Prior knowledge:
Number of strands: 10
CATH topology of the largest domain: N-terminal domain of MutM-like DNA repair proteins
Helix content: 25-40%
CATH class of the largest domain: Alpha Beta
Order of helices and strands: HEHEEEEEEEHHHHHEE
Number of helices: 7
Amino acid sequence: MPELPEVETTRRGIAPHVIGQQIKAVVVRDSRLRWPVPDQLRLELPGRLMERVERRGKYLLLYAGDACLLVHLGMSGSLRVTSAQDLVLKHDHVDIIMESGAILRYSDPRRFGCMLWLKESPLQHPLLKTLGPEPLSDAFNGRILFAASRGRKVPVKSFIMDSHVVVGVGNIYANEALFMAGIRPDRAAGRIALERYERLALCIREILGRAIAQGGTTLRDFVGGDGKPGYFKQSLHVYGRGGEACTACGETLREIRLGQRSTVFCPHCQH
């Protein structure tokens, strides 16, 4: 699944090509996504000016006048800029065609993503309303994590992956942030001190920021807004490396399952 850095990479990739552009047409080849693509998108988006492209968690928000196109990439989706000369592929479900000739193309082999056309404030939509703070914003810090964790017996890895606690800390980045912070992923969230949460919050911010700077993590199905994959995978210290040597101490990395997710940590560096 594209994670927050991949979605932010997509946002940054498409924004220069669509902001300030008038929409010429919308082509819906297959409306069968997680929820059907609404007819209003095809009827009401043409003629509008794309004013800005924002992100909330793993959702992209494309504002056009008094309405907003809310996009989620699902498990395997991508949103990229292309042109009429590029071949339309099997899973290219929606095209948003600009007056400039640029095409914003939504592809989704598994069709678990969504494109919703909203007239109300998107931040008040049920999908976004209860989301936690953005990990790269000033609203996120160790005190927030510490306060939310009191009395919680859930493993700290599952805790920081809860989008009601903080958005966008997916499995890959949770593994990496906990390794950087020196915290075992299976420790109870409520038994971690404020000082360690302050360190963890900084590590989450650093890991996500670094991944965004490097274009996201290369996943099997993900491509960025410019059609190019990310390269953060080259920098992973624990994720996907169970049984290999720790890059810090040489100890063999352990792999366990937490919340149905593969979890890798160093028994020597993380406690």
